[in-house]
Amino acid sequence: MKHIIHIIILLVSMSGVCFAQTTDDVLFEQASKYYDAGEYDKAVPILSELAQRKHAKAINFLGVCYELGRGVKKDLKRSAQLYRQAAESGLPRAQKNLGNCYRFGKGVEKDQEKAYVCYEKAFKYYKEQAEQGDAAAQLEMGFYYFGGRLRSGTDYAKAKVWFEKSAEQGEAEAMNVLGQMFQYGYGVEKDVDRAYDCYLKGAEKGSVYAQRNLAWLFADETFRERHSSGEGDSYHEDFDFYKETEKWLRMAARKNADCMYELACFYLDMGVLDEWQGYYCEEYLRKAAEKGSGMAQACLAFNYLGEQKLDEAFVLLREAKENGTVSFSKFSYDDDNNEELKVDLMLSAAGYLSKNRQYSFKDAINQGENLMVVAHRQNAKDGLLLFSKSGKVLELSEFIYDELHYGGNYGTNNDHGLLYKDDGEDIYIDCCDCYLDVNMLNAFSLFFRQHGEMKVKRGVYRGGDAIYAVAVDGNGKSGVLKISRQSKLVDSTGFEYESANISVPGHENHGHVGMGREGLSFIGNEMDLDMVFVLSHFFSIHKEYQFMEAVYRDRNCFLVSVKQTEEGKYGWLKLSKEGKVVASTPFSNEQFYYGSYNKDGLFYSSLIGSDEKLGLDDMLSRFK
Q1: 374 vs 404: CA distance, rounded Å
Q2: CA distance 318 to 298
Q3: Alpha-carbon distance 232 to 216, whole Å?
Q4: For the chain, does the N or the C end have fewer beta carbons within 10 angstroms?
């Protein structure tokens, strides 16, 4: 790199320009061009040499490189030191950057008062220049009021005034920020059409961020609806929203690694990729990672883990963490398995797996402050590993599953479900607002290995120390079981049903239960699952009633529709959680159902689980 620097110096000296001062400025401009092009490895050596010669702008710019990890290892302390050095020479931009360090605690202890002092020093310069008509200074003034750098706090009205003045002089970034103000309603009424106009002007003038924001505006549902229907001041019949988003993202990606990552995500999110798009989807992700996008580095690392490129994955995750990336979404075509993962936990898991090669990584999902990893063990099968932040394995399941998937939408309710294969059959376990932990999975599978006369069909876990299962006995009869964390049977309906099912749909606040000799179904979210055993035990004792239907309204009772075995008349019972009849309606020859009218015109809500209780209250009033 030094020979390049010397060539630049030679060319400048031969041109007859004043060498002592101007050469460094020419070198600085060259370094800036390298940086803007993403060629950080060329920019940093020039900036470093200029910094040794006390070039204030180069010192500040080098601080930016250390802050963002561009061309050097990220080092916030070193960055703050360089900002302070440049600020001491009176450089306003460095004073502002040092203020940011104190404001957000980057490389220094957080100190709002010191932040204000730094901001105020720079503010005096920017205000003077802005009032003289300098567009760049006007832009900075806008940011001062927009970003709350002053003791007086945020002032969107003043920010807008300065951004408009800067934009009138052609400052592309001012146009971009104005677009954001109109799109999101910062101090103004939301107006996607004016946002579009601002973004377009800024994008055409080369603002990377305006190009990015314009691209995603075309993907905004409100904007698309207006311009698809012909509404809006800047309506265009010929908008191809897909092509416009692609066009502007590709343009932004040329200069910005994070925009390159977003372009890769855009192609991925389209769902159906042709051969060209599929290739560039992966290619852009790789290039974005190489250019320093922390999100791209983390996503690529996750892919590498799946390909068992463990060392490469570890390095990328470390770089992503150094670049300030806290969490990321899997770069996956599966929308149902795309929960955000924490970078530090993934880094710990990658470090462990790289040292313990008997495990092959398959998938991962957050579990509170820990990370659950699905893995395949050499000479064994699939299982689970639970990692702490320090990289320690807290728990591990048995590696006995032919195939194991965790975290996708494998249940009826949410993305917390688990699926494993048993003798070629899929076994689903629904998890309601929780994750099935390692010990509970071990207990569940161990129970059915110990009881070979039963065949598990489905499970439901709602947290705590018990799990519920639908199973079939050796005679083909179905029932519901409650199994403890110690693999013990806690309760059972008995195996006397032709079929059974149990599920936990998250949109229902209460629940609906149907049970009879021909089948048993049980649905409930807020519902206490143990109530199904109350019902089963009640009807196994009280042969004088035949079960028809049950409605669960709270944790203290069921409303149960029954038929009298001998007389054949219908009525409703109010059944306590202890299995006692606490009230009943009169019995008649006509059956009336939850969700229908009876002969008297009484209505019972057909919206199971809704908050409409009028019909049930009317029915309850008939209980004696």
Answers
A1: 7
A2: 9
A3: 18
A4: C
**Mean of the per-residue pLDDT values of the chain:** 82
Token pair 């010192």: residue = 59
Determine the pLDDT at residue 573: 84
Cβ(436)–Cβ(418) below 8 Å = yes
- Supply the DSSP symbol for 415: T
d(CA 267, CA 502) in angstroms, rounded, equals: 39
Instruction: State which H helix or E strand residue 158 sits in.
Output: helix 156-168
pTM: 0.75
Residue that has been written with the tokens 């009205």 in this structure: 157
Tell me the residue type at 529.
L
Structure tokens, 516? 């009879």
Residue type present at position 538: F
Assign 313 to helix, strand or coil.
helix
> 489 forms bridges with which residues in the sheet?
483
For residue 38, what are its two tokens?
């993403």
Is 378 in contact with 404 (CB distance < 8 Å)? no
Helix (H), strand (E) at residue 306: helix 294-306
Contact indicator for 79, 101 with CB cutoff of 8 Å: yes
Q: What end-to-end distance do the CA atoms of the chain give, in Å?
A: 94
* Measured distance CA(367)–CA(146) in Å, rounded: 38
What is the arithmetic mean of pLDDT over 413-436?
70
For residue 312, which phi and psi values (nearest 5 degrees)?
A: -65, -40
The pLDDT assigned to 356 comes to: 93
pLDDT at 359: 95
DSSP state of 188: S
